[in-house]
Amino acid sequence: MRFWDREKEVKDLKAHIESEPNSILFVYGPKSSGKSTLLYRVVKELSRRKLFVQKYDVYWFDLRGVMISTYDDVVQLFFEPEGKEGQKVISETQALFGIPNIASFSVKSAVYKEIKSKEIDPFRYMEAILRKRRKRHIVVFDELQKLREVYMNGGNQKPVVSELFNFFVRLTKVLHLAHVIVMTSDTFFIEEVYTSSSLENTAKYYLVDYFDDETAKKILIEENFDKTMADYIVYQIGGVPWMMMEIIQQSKTMSVEDIINNMYLAVKSSIEEKIGDIMEDDDNLGNRAIDVLKKVIKGERLDMMSKDRKIVKLLVEREILYYDPLRKRISPHTKLHEKAVRELLGE
Predict the structure, then answer these.
(1) Do 269 and 243 fall into the same domain?
(2) Hey, which end of the chain has fewer CB within 10 Å, N or C?
(3) Are both 34 and 122 inside the same structural domain?
(4) 262/160 Cα distance (integer angstroms)
């Protein structure tokens, strides 16, 4: 995704990284709001400084597109056995984005086997590596919620996520050894982790939202749309980065009106299918989902302490609604989602 005006966010994240580690940082926001693109930019800009490269190591774990269901999968994510010549495997993130100084944990093959067999505690070993290198470290996890169903012992005893966050607190709050940055679009995951891992006074939260309307219009004008067309686009879709990029790219061969209409039809069809799937699984659940959507569209208060919470969570997981856990804001995922829900419900 092209990098657009995020000057404030870049400045804020640089300041966090250059301060002493003292808390886990959750970078959260709607899906495709540009969280990963933003952090890539921050690290890439910092990596141009010779002093930064000398002082910092960066470990970047991207869980998107990775199948993780067992402890062995987690070990493969965190650790790389050294190659036959003793050379560390170049990380996929480093290869794709050309950001220097990024790696996962490289270990000897014999150690890798002992970690997989649980003869060596992976978290203690990671801590030992970080201590040995005598640098300040940045450890980034993208979409960490994918580990929520993985357990240390293959059963329901020790969730990997719970153990990880205890480890993160030690790295940040206790040892001041590393910045730990967790990026996620699953905002209910933040609440779950906060409750289960006792993160009070150990975590900060940074929202990367869609662009506000004025910023989106400015970007579109810079991309050679006139003011009237920029106003129209933002009125229809808001400041959703990936939608803006689609319009910019496709407008060379299609009218903007047709592009937005195609987007709308795709969103509407997706919502119809998702609601239909819920109805097919459980009529009662489906009807409750429709009731919750009506309340959201009308701006009515929801009971997030009990009866509505499960339904909101389901609709957020299906990317029909968006939930901001800090501001307690519940809304359709985008303007097109709101328009589609209104039409489907006859509101």
Answers:
(1) no
(2) C
(3) yes
(4) 41
Task: Share the mean pLDDT of the chain.
Answer: 88
Full residue range of the structural domain in which residue 239 is found: 213-252
Each residue's pLDDT tens digit, 268-279 = 999 999 999 999
Residue type, 50: K
Summarize pLDDT for 46-71 with one digit per residue, the tens: 888 888 878 888 888 888 877 888 88
Task: Say which amino acid occupies 209.
Answer: D
Is the residue at 1 inside a domain? no
In a domain, 235, yes or no: yes
Burial class (CB in 10 A: 0-12, 13-18, 19+), 171: buried
DSSP-assigned states of every residue in 20-87: PP-SEEEEE-STTSSHHHHHHHHHHHHHTSHHHHHHEEEEEEE-TT----SHHHHHHHHEEE--TTSP
Closest alpha carbon to 108 in 134, 86, 132, 78: 86
In this predicted structure, what is the pLDDT of residue 90?
A: 45
Long-range Cβ contacts of 3-8 (<8 Å, 24+ apart): 3/37, 3/38, 3/41, 4/34, 4/211, 4/219, 4/241, 5/211, 5/215, 5/218, 5/219, 6/34, 6/38, 6/41
**Which of 180, 207, 234 finishes a domain?**
207
Residues 6 or more apart whose Cβ sits within 8 Å of residue 60: 43, 91, 93, 102, 103, 104, 140, 142
- CB neighbour class for 337 (10 Å; exposed up to 12, middle 13-18, buried from 19): buried
Residue 319, H or E segment:
none
Residue with tokens 């040892």: 175
The pLDDT tens digits of the residues spanning 164-203 come to 998 999 999 999 999 999 999 888 888 888 776 667 789 9
- Examine the domain organization and report whether 258 and 178 are in the same domain: no
